[in-house]
């Protein structure tokens, strides 16, 4: 028995919600095939498209799957094939896609004994291996789709949010290396009350905008006064991309996860494609290799 899974890319943080907000992309993602095996344990048999370790303990999919197996009594094992399309270190949840795919697929093969909330917990163990921090803002939207909010980490409380039907994302990946662990290490640990007020106002506004289908409110709330000012210096042409996106009609833009990808949200596919054209023009004039996608948030 086997399952073939689409493991979607995700945008974590979504500007105002560092470590708590995430969006799922429906046209960017990896594929995974998982088979039941008579040999106990987790065996990663094939990885295509990336130079990643096959050793179970060193692979995010392997670690997430092991965390899951620990909680059940199952005599057999699983074989995992991973076909990577999301580049590692791009900022659209490459490690999360693998961790989420592994636990989702194994859960299917076992007849779904675990809830989404448990799957998020297992997949977070993969994230801990990848970035040193077990954050859930990529694995939650990868597993649950749409938009998600991590209301609390201890105890873990993940909320699925509705997404307006015309919400599209444009994501550009300037191919410079930014490691999540490094871009977390440069962050300050203290935030002024003034900035905290702005940030939680925006988180509330963004979530309300999703519920109310209010694109203007979503637009006003796409602001990050805490993390973006620090991380954006690592990303070439960040300001130019932000300005060009807004001029092309985007609702707003920011760093996707820990970068270097930049996302812009738009109302409608047409605007999202115009935003992509505007961003393309910026990087075309540079030496920086890049790729760009538009995707429905779904
Ligand atoms: N919330 C995490 C961070 C996401 O920004 O470090 C990493 O993809």
Automatic annotation (TrEMBL):
Its EC number is 2.7.1.39. Residues 64-146 form the GHMP kinase N-terminal domain. InterPro entries: GHMP_kinase_C_dom, GHMP_kinase_C_sf, GHMP_kinase_N_dom, Homoserine_kinase, Ribosomal_Su5_D2-typ_SF, Ribsml_uS5_D2-typ_fold_subgr. It is found in: Cytoplasm. GO terms for cellular component: cytoplasm. Pathway: Amino-acid biosynthesis; L-threonine biosynthesis; L-threonine from L-aspartate: step 4/5. The keyword Kinase applies. Belongs to the GHMP kinase family. Homoserine kinase subfamily. This is Homoserine kinase. It comes from Neptunitalea chrysea. The gene is thrB.
